[in-house]
Amino acid sequence: xxxxxxxxxxxxxxxxxxxxxxxxxxxxxxxxxxxxxxxxxxxxxxxxxxxxxxxxxxxxxxxxxxxxxxxxxxxxxxxxxxxxxxxxxxxxxxxxxxxxxxxxxxxxxxxxxxxxxxxxxxxxxxxxxxxxxxxxxxxxxxxxxxxxxxxxxxxxxxxx
Length: 160
Known about the structure:
The chain is mainly alpha-helical. It is built from 9 helices and no strands. The protein is 78% helix and 0% strand. The relative contact order is 0.06.
């Protein structure tokens, strides 16, 4: 019985450490958000407000707050965040803005176009290029990827 209590204690300790690290990670990454999303996450993570308290303060339903915080948590810790972080150095300023809005904020292409006052087709073309870049790098070895990149974006043959 004593062994069983020690195992349960170790599991509980591991779980508490994991949750603490997860919250610290979210606190750090919430600065990438803006507007109401940042307010939600700040109230939830930093101030320790419950969904009910946040909903009462902001005049939004508790269910909406719960869903939004869960969605934001998934965005900041999920694959989309890693895709954005991994490929952002290969993008120019406008592409970074579009990728951030698409991968982190979860905005549609139309919403991105409206936010940046540009055409839907420009956003679509840019996001297709970004997604092509990501997919090409995932399936090609580094040297093949460089060849593909040169052909795709510089419209030239391989540069030695």
